[in-house]
Specification:
The structure holds 2 protein chains of 2 kinds. By secondary structure, chain A is an alpha/beta fold. Chain A has 6 helices and 5 strands; from the N terminus they run βαβαβαβαβαα. Chain A has one domain: Rossmann fold (3-Layer(aba) Sandwich), CATH 3.40.50. Classes of the chains: A alpha/beta, B alpha/beta.
Chain lengths: 131, 415
């Protein structure tokens, strides 16, 4: 499948970035940009617009939700998938109301993560999201 | 400390069960509120010195005599000349015990006691009636009004003091128990928080170990290395399961299990779960079969939580039945409850292991038949979730072999 590139992977933990990097490569991605903090992600965002952002919620410094709100002032369209380590109703509601398109718990099995990303990136769902 | 300071024949004596339960310096630390030995009568008196006793009597001479007796024993008397005054003084001085005359102008002793108990509740001080009205009917009325004891006039000072001491000591012990319960609850809450945090922080790295080893496993590795990677993958998966279940237990124990109840038909729930579990079952040539949907009851439930229960019961049934088994499901459309049952072809549950079945880490002697792993927390979590729904979960051995796990939730409408 054709992925909108580049893909930003924002997480303070390198093992998560590498793991997700391998996953999206399996989906066909070739250009992956990693950021280890929200600030770093926003710096990169100023230089280049991604086609998909995978964004950790719980990061030291600027949190994922703050970063997401910042991203949304710059780009209302880019699909953003939040990465969480727990899924409380409160977190899901807060992420969704801050403009996230989806969220993935990090211990979700690989095949399930791939399915969620595919579903999010199929043209039909992109059309639905267009204003 | 207790074993060091205790001297003479006491050290030679084997510890009584009481001493074991109370001698808590090593188990609970030095703040443990229980004394480490049974106190002597004199030591108890010392401990109760300075307790405030409210003396309520409309006779000034009686008050003075009682106050003198109380002072001689180290208590601090507080006077009240009527029921009304007693209630007022009680609120201000918060005495540890009340000596209450019955026949007084204004509200009498019984009424005073009833007001006291209804106003200040369980925390109120024990009341001892001290009165010339002492027919058995009077005594009964006094005790029913909430009094703890009843003393006849004319009284004997020794008896008055002995009874006061007994009630104050009981109250002291009850306070200690309350303090202990509060301390233990706080310690338990701290433990739950710790387990929750530890489990939570382990989850991400474990997920990465599993995910990365999965990639490695699927790459072009020599067979011997592939086997090692497979082991890493399997071990990280088991650890992740354990961590997730520990997190569930910690959340539930911390009282943070919030249900989002909505009506759901058990056939819909079971169908979804059975589809996924059948993939696992197929690896052992086993199969889950569902009955006809008709008669499947509907109940109010937190669907995600109840799915966890169903998944657990189905995967257990597969796990403990021999390969090639048939797992069957039945619905319980009984009056007053709604539920389902899962029947396996496993070894059943030995009677002597029954009480461990739904407990944390209550692993039994039965082993998974296909090398699957078990954390010993699954059924404990099931029970906690079902309890939160005000339902029941039970296990019965079937006469023809195998075991049946039943879940019953309150039928609609929810009480």
């Amino acid at each position: 499948m054709i992925l909108p590139e580049p893909i930003f992977i924002v997480d303070d933990e390198i093992h998560i970035r590498r793991f997700l990097g391998l996953l999206v490569r399996q989906l066909g991605a070739t250009r992956i940009v990693e950021a280890a903090s929200g600030d770093q992600a926003l710096e990169l965002f100023a230089r280049e617009r991604p086609g998909l952002v995978l964004l950790d919620i719980n990061m030291p410094g600027r949190s994922g939700i703050e970063t997401l709100r910042e991203i949304r002032t710059l780009d209302a369209e880019v699909p953003v998938v939040m990465l969480t380590s727990l899924t409380s109703r409160q977190i899901i509601e807060e992420t969704m109301s801050s403009g996230a398109d989806s969220f993935i718990r990090k211990d979700t099995p690989s095949q399930e993560i791939i399915r969620i990303l595919k579903e999010l990136l199929t043209p039909a769902s992109l059309e639905n999201e267009a204003p | 400390m207790s074993s060091v300071t205790r001297q003479g024949p006491a050290t030679a004596r084997p510890p009584t069960s009481k001493a074991r339960a109370c001698g808590g310096d090593t188990a609970y630390g030095s703040t443990h509120p229980f004394p480490d030995k049974v106190l002597s009568s004199r030591a108890i008196s010392e401990q109760l010195r300075g307790r405030r006793v409210l003396v309520v009597d409309d006779d000034r001479v009686n008050r003075r005599i009682l106050s003198g007796i109380l002072q001689s024993a180290g208590y601090v008397p507080v006077d009240a000349a009527s029921g009304e005054e007693a209630l007022e003084h009680y609120d201000k001085t918060r005495p540890h015990l009340v000596l209450l005359d019955v026949e007084m102008a204004g509200i009498d002793g019984f009424a005073t006691c009833r007001t006291l108990k209804s106003t200040f509740g369980d925390a109120s001080a024990p009341v001892i009636f001290i009165t010339a009205r002492n027919s058995p009917e009077d005594v009964a009325e006094g005790l029913e009004a909430g009094g703890s004891d009843y003393l006849p006039k004319p009284f004997r000072p020794r008896e008055v003091l002995a009874r006061i001491k007994s009630h104050l000591h009981n109250q002291f012990l009850a306070d200690q128990q309350k303090q202990l319960v509060a301390q233990l609850s706080a310690a338990n809450a701290a433990k739950n928080k710790f387990v929750g945090m530890a489990a939570h922080d382990l989850r991400n790295p474990l997920a990465s170990i599993r995910g990365l080893s999965e990639f490695l496993r699927d790459s072009n590795l020599p067979a011997d290395q592939r086997e090692l990677v497979e082991l890493i993958y399997g071990a990280s998966q088991s650890m992740l399961d354990l961590v997730n279940e520990l997190l569930d237990v910690a959340t539930i124990e911390a009282g943070e299990l919030r249900l989002d109840p909505q009506p759901c038909n058990f056939a819909d729930l079971l169908r979804g779960c059975a589809f996924l579990q059948n993939i696992q079952a197929a690896k052992k040539r086993s199969r889950i079969t569902l009955p006809d949907d008709t008669g499947a009851p509907t109940a109010l439930m937190d669907v995600a939580k109840m799915r966890q229960v169903v998944d657990n019961l189905l995967s257990n049934a597969i796990k403990y039945s021999p390969p090639g088994s048939e797992i069957t499901v039945a619905y319980h459309p009984e009056a007053g409850s709604a539920g389902f049952a899962v029947r396996d072809q496993g070894p059943g549950i030995p009677d002597h292991e029954r009480d461990r079945l739904f407990r944390d880490f209550g692993r039994l002697s039965a082993k998974p038949t296909g090398g699957e792993s078990s954390t010993g927390l699954g059924l404990a979590i099931c029970r906690k979730i079902v309890d939160a729904h005000r339902g029941t979960i039970t296990a019965e051995n079937l006469p023809a072999g195998g075991c049946e796990f039943s879940v019953r939730l309150p039928a609609l409408p929810w009480p």
